[in-house]
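Long-time lurker. I teach an intro course on protein structure, and each term I like to show students one example going from raw sequence to a predicted 3D structure in token notation. This year I'd like something fresh instead of my usual example. Would anyone be willing to generate the tokens for the chain below so I can use it in lecture? Attribution to the forum is fine with me.
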Amino acid sequence: MQREELNRYLDGLLEVSRYRDYCPNGLQVEGRGEIRRIVSGVTASFDLIQAALTEDADAILVHHGYFWKGDNPCLTGTRRARIALLIARELNLYAYHLPLDAHAEFGNNAQLGKRLGLVETGRFADQDIGVHGLLDAPMRLDAFAAQVKHRLGREPLVIGDAAREVRQIAWCTGAAQGFFEEAINLGCDAYLSGEISEQQVHLARESGVAFIAAGHHATEKFGIQALGEHLAAQFGVAHKFIDIPNPV
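-- Reply from a regular --
Happy to contribute to a lecture. Here you go:
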């Protein structure tokens, strides 16, 4: 397919114009016009670019791209190295941040909820990014945490009473610890995100609502992977998800 055709399709599918974001969504670095092979990954790191070149990709599809609000705009150091390599090898870079978090089918939250057996019952937080839902049946917090570990391949940090029964869960992938108080106000039994800050530990202890920090990278692997698989099925392009390990 053609570069601009893919850009228009993804912008429409993910409803990019709906969101106020901290970065541009869509085609961030223009490469060759024809796209036959796509590599997807969480973050457009130098390692992912090199891996995409090894796969002879024409485009990279990521959740975390470049040009974040507040960034130094100068193309120096690691920023220059990444962008110079993309341009030199004519690799397209497509990045989708909040639109990918929120998408009802391919979004990070939707895909994580699916893997954890959560049935969405509503949305919350700024721009309806956060999700709340129910487990099929109540379970102990430590049993749910074990399920999170199994599905994500990473030990989560859990703040809360391990023996407490939980069923109503709120979640938002990545660095969404700031939505915890809203989850508490919803009457949820537990909140799951990628990261936790010092103040959320106290909120969890004092409110009795558990906080599960399951890893920024780990909670955001599934959306971009599902989106890449959809493109392969829809347009017949080759797709490969490459996971560049990240402990955070």
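Some talking points for your students: The domain at 3-100+220-241 is CATH 3.40.1390.30 (Udp-n-acetylmuramoylalanyl-d-glutamate--2,6- Diaminopimelate Ligase; Chain: A, domain 1). The CA atoms of residues 89 and 185 lie 50 Å apart.
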